[in-house]
Specification:
The complex is a heterotrimer of chains A (660), B (185) and C (148). By secondary structure, chain A is of the alpha+beta class. Chain A has 21 helices and twelve strands. Chain A has four domains: 158 residues, Four Helix Bundle (Hemerythrin (Met), subunit A) (Up-down Bundle), CATH 1.20.120; 235 residues, no CATH class; 133 residues, no CATH class; 100 residues. In chain A, a hairpin with a 3-residue loop joins strand 10 and strand 11. The chains are: A alpha+beta (660), B alpha/beta (185), C mainly alpha (148).
């Protein structure tokens, strides 16, 4: 019954999406307010229907209704409740419904909070959202229906992959989709602007909050995924340049570029067509990622079970959405030229280089990801493009960008005094040199230590520059002043926080890559491993069992110079349904490092177990930095200008015209 | 005018990508398994190897060296008692051996002698000679990525064809047997 | 990251080298690790043999160590594997005719981007005085109308 209700709600959302796609758009073209007004209730109704559908699916999972095929294939009565819930989106069909839900939610948000948008723009934006929703609804209803029944209903389900039964991974898809799908708003705004034929500062100001929100969620989503991989997969790695990871990273790179170029449009009304293109591309890349993961043409640990039929459908969707929007771009964008001039050395110039480097990086990662696929398709044989390639090309592109990020905020609009800016950065520069020298000497000097020292120096440069910039704005007569701090727009604080977060992330990346220590030994109870200044003594292993698994748990006592520090209890789990093993590492995070213990197979008959100890320097900084970046995004979102600004301007113009 | 062309560039790139993706999808749809690694050893001599016989098999001669693969056309089949797909193709191998068209040489990959012998006793022993490969040295030398894999080797000991996965009767009739006949002329 | 299919056999091992595999000489062992990290596990989805738990990956690791022990250089070991498995087994593609495009791409993309940038800037500088922005238009209107 409930499943049918869910199915019905989803099916009902289809005509609603159709109406939402067509009517407001026609209304905007003809100036008929009544038609344009259809957009808002349609979007809200869509949200209600898709929410109903999603809730119905969730109900089926929670109640273990195995007559529903999707529940049967992905759930099990013995699963803890949290994972019954997250199992809803732990499979292709359910995750697509989540996609559509978030799409509808964003559309409804514009309907509810977009009161300050001009009527036509809002109508067109809702229309485009509706079109995207329409496409995905068709996809789900015709190729990926989660509500199909099976008769007779099995007694027990096949269970959820144990790797997915984890809190981190339970929330990773929703967070990621909020990001991916959030960029659909920028896409819709861009298409609406192209149809209208006008991109101006007001448009940039309206787009920014949506872009910021999407970017923030995507940042946190990627961070969450990395963090999960780090603690779950058992060897302390957190980024593998896997095709599906890249599929989320590439839109993040272009999304960051979009965020920055939108600032230029807002302030100086220039870089318009470029910004619009970025908005179109970022969401297109999100959809491309969806395609790659579910079509079966890319091999990845992350890929869903492949299904070429679905792949064809998504490819068509992609073709229509991306092809259509880019055609519109080709036709309308040339008319968008114009805007303020600026000297090469200026904030605009700096942001332009920011965009150049970010999009080149995005394009490079895309090429590397697709190259094996393309090479094979044209008969060049099978190739692998792995981490060594990506690291080799990505780092040289990012380094100048990070150097620039320190300088950028000091550059004035239109024409900047570079030497003046660099003067103010003297302190940051000195700090960076000092850090370089310090780290280099502390890690033994010599050629091998240069890379790590340079990484730390770069982070120090960026961090110091961000702080100096903030202080210079927050100071009165050379002293930080609370009143100035409070008077500063929130977005300024957000920027500083985000850039600082980036610096912290670099510290994490450098430390973890350069100074990681690994020790593997077969330990009998009483034996120990020394690493990173700590002693890890193996105390033995015992059986512990969970709700749907059996486990072997090892105990490692950690001491430093004889003084007890902690007791780590890693596990090795064995799930029954489906049969699979997982390692649960035990991690102790201190300020400067992670102590990471994994228990392996038993070795021999005397109670010895293979034990792996990792010392991961500065990895906690990696997660802290990502959180800071996310926080920076949220803080920027609370800036009053995004809620009040545009509307007020419109009314001011009207008032002046009335007075004239 | 040239300015306008730049705006078409994104569309053009996307269009090209779509075509490639479409082609790949069609390939997969037609049953191409993207995970199969084609061999780079075609038309190269069989790798040097000297694999021990399985003790207790009792056949003489036994064990497998690269020398044994020269002088006549042969199939080299890499298998294991742990391999489910090998069980699927085994009747076909038994038939081939019985027909006498071409000898089937075997490489027992990552198996204990007891396990191999037990499995052969149960399912039939089509192999002329078998060499043991407990450490995957021969498998790696042949560029093997899974079991079963079968190589067609000609009189000069040159690898002429690789079949990945179990040999179906169709694959034998349509591809492998004709090649063997051709090489035997 | 992403969602994982139930069909794939996922290698979950902690960095998969076992104590018994390691070479006695730490310098040789670290070279072996380096080479292992550069070789792709051919039965896995996107992992190096250093990371993978698969049986074949383990055997390859041991083979790598044997060859290093026997005196092969790192490159020689890599070449040995490529001879048998093709370029697919290298995680860092060699620079050769089929991969030139890949290696040159970043520089080419950057150069192209710079070119477009410079051209657009130049063309804009030569264009007529730009249209007024909406702020400026408003300001002008105010001035013209004599509004306070």
């Amino acid at each position: 019954m409930i499943a049918e209700l869910g199915h019905f709600a989803l099916a009902l959302a289809l005509p609603v999406a159709l109406i939402q796609s067509i009517v407001p758009m026609m209304g905007a073209a003809r100036g008929v307010s009544a038609w344009m007004d259809v957009g808002r209730p349609a979007a809200l109704l869509q949200l209600a229907l898709v929410t109903t559908s999603f809730s119905a699916l969730m109900w089926c999972f929670i109640n273990s209704d195995f007559s529903v095929v999707n529940v049967f294939q992905n759930s099990h009565t013995a699963k803890p409740l949290l994972y019954k819930i997250s199992g809803v989106w732990g499979n292709h069909e359910g995750s697509m419904v989540l996609w559509i839900l978030i799409l509808a939610a964003f559309g409804a948000a514009v309907a509810a909070f977009g009161g300050n948008l001009p009527e036509r723009l809002r109508a067109r934006v809702l229309s485009v959202q509706g079109m995207i929703g329409l496409g995905f609804l068709l996809f789900v209803l015709f190729t990926s229906n989660p509500f199909l029944r099976i008769d007779p209903a099995p007694i027990e389900g096949r269970g959820l992959n144990p790797l997915l039964q984890d809190p981190g991974l339970a929330f990773h898809p929703p967070m990621l989709y909020l990001g991916y799908v959030g960029f659909s708003m920028a896409f819709s705004f861009a298409v609406a602007a192209l149809i209208e034929g006008r991109v101006d500062a007001a448009w940039a100001r309206w787009v920014r909050p949506w872009t910021l929100a999407a970017w923030t969620f995507l940042t946190l989503g990627i961070g969450l995924g990395s963090w999960w991989a780090y603690y779950e997969l058992g060897w302390g790695g957190w980024w593998f340049w896997d095709p599906v990871e890249n599929a989320s990273f590439i839109p993040w790179l272009t999304g960051t570029a979009l965020l920055h170029s939108a600032i230029v449009v807002e302030r100086r009304e220039t870089l318009k067509s470029w910004t619009v293109l970025l908005a179109l591309i970022t969401f297109s890349l999100s959809m491309l990622g969806t395609f790659l993961v579910r079509s079966g043409i890319i091999t990845s640990v992350h890929a869903f079970a492949s299904d070429p039929a679905r792949g064809v459908f998504v490819l068509l969707l992609l073709g229509i959405a991306v092809g259509g929007s880019l055609t519109l771009y080709a036709i309308r964008a040339p008319a968008l030229e114009g805007g303020g001039l600026f000297a090469p050395i200026s904030r605009e110039g700096g942001l332009l280089i920011n965009n150049l480097l970010l999009t080149t990086a995005a394009a490079t990662v895309l090429v590397g990801t697709l190259y094996p696929l393309l090479a094979e398709a044209i008969g060049l044989g099978k190739l692998s493009v792995g981490p060594p390639y990506f690291n080799a090309v990505f780092i040289p592109l990012m380094t100048p960008l990070l150097l620039l990020t320190g300088v950028g905020p000091f550059l004035a609009w239109k024409r900047a005094d570079l030497s003046g800016a660099l003067q103010r950065l003297k302190l940051a520069f000195v700090t960076a040199i000092a850090v370089f020298a310090g780290v280099w000497l502390l890690t033994g000097g010599g050629l091998g230590a240069i890379a790590a020292a340079a990484g730390m120096a770069l982070a120090a440069w960026l961090g110091a520059a961000a702080i100096v910039e903030w202080l210079s704005r927050a100071s009165l007569n050379g002293m930080p002043s609370l009143s100035r701090v409070l008077a500063m727009p929130r977005a300024a604080h957000g920027m500083t926080l985000a850039h600082l977060g980036m610096a912290v992330v670099i510290v994490g990346i450098t430390g973890a890559s350069a100074w990681k220590e690994e020790r593997i030994e077969a330990l009998k109870p009483g034996q120990h491993i020394d690493a990173g200044g700590y002693r890890f003594t193996f105390d033995g292993a015992r059986r512990t069992d969970g709700p749907n698994y059996e486990a072997v748990q090892g105990t490692y006592t950690v001491t430093k110079d004889g003084a007890p520090v902690a007791v780590l209890t890693p596990e090795r789990r064995s799930y029954a349904q489906p049969p699979q093993g997982t390692t649960e590492a035990a991690i102790l995070s201190t300020f400067t490092r992670d102590l990471y213990a994994v228990i392996g197979e038993p070795d021999g008959d005397e109670g010895a177990f293979v034990s792996r100890i990792f010392i991961e320097p500065f990895v906690p900084w990696l997660w802290a930095g990502v959180l800071m970046m996310g926080l920076g995004g949220f803080v920027s979102l609370t800036d009053r200008r995004y809620r009040v600004g545009a509307g007020r301007r419109a009314s001011t113009v009207a008032a002046v015209q009335a007075a004239a | 005018m040239r300015g306008r062309l730049v705006f078409l560039l994104p569309l053009a790139i996307v269009g090209a990508l779509m075509l490639v993706f479409g082609k790949r999808l069609l390939d997969v749809g037609r049953g191409e398994d993207l995970r199969i690694l084609p061999t780079v050893l075609l038309d190269t001599p069989v790798p040097d190897m000297a694999l021990d016989a399985i003790p207790g098999r009792g056949r003489n001669p036994d064990g497998l060296t690269d020398e044994d693969l020269r002088g006549e056309v042969a199939l080299v089949n890499i298998w294991g008692s742990w391999c489910v797909a090998c069980l699927a193709e085994h009747p076909v191998l038994n038939e081939i051996a019985k027909s006498g068209v071409v000898p089937v040489q075997g490489i027992a990959w990552r198996d204990s002698p007891a396990a191999s012998l037990g499995w052969l006793a149960k399912h039939g022993d089509p192999y002329a000679r078998i060499g043991q490969d407990p450490k995957s040295r021969a498998a790696i030398a042949f560029g093997v990525t899974g079991a079963p894999e079968t190589f067609v080797v000609d009189r000069q000991g040159v690898i002429r064809y690789k079949h990945t996965g179990p040999i179906s009767p169709e694959a034998w009739e349509r591809t492998i047997k004709p090649l063997v006949m051709e090489l035997s002329k | 990251m992403g969602l994982i299919a139930m069909m794939t056999a996922i290698s979950l091992g902690a960095l998969a080298v076992e104590p018994s595999e390691r070479l006695a000489d730490p310098a040789l062992e670290s070279r072996a690790r380096e080479v292992s990290k550069a070789l792709r596990c051919v039965v896995c989805q996107n992992e190096s043999i250093d990371d993978s738990n698969a049986e074949l990956a383990k055997d390859m690791r041991i083979l790598v160590r044997d060859r290093i022990n026997a005196g092969d250089s790192n490159q020689a070991v890599l070449d040995y594997m490529v001879e048998r498995y093709g370029d697919f087994v290298l995680l860092k593609p060699r620079v050769m005719p089929t991969t030139i495009a890949l290696w040159v791409a970043p520089a080419v993309l950057l150069a192209l981007g710079l070119l477009v940038l410079i051209r657009t800037m130049r063309r804009r500088a030569m264009a007529e005085p730009t249209a007024l922005s909406s702020d400026e238009a408003l300001k002008l209107k105010r001035l013209m109308d004599g509004a306070p």
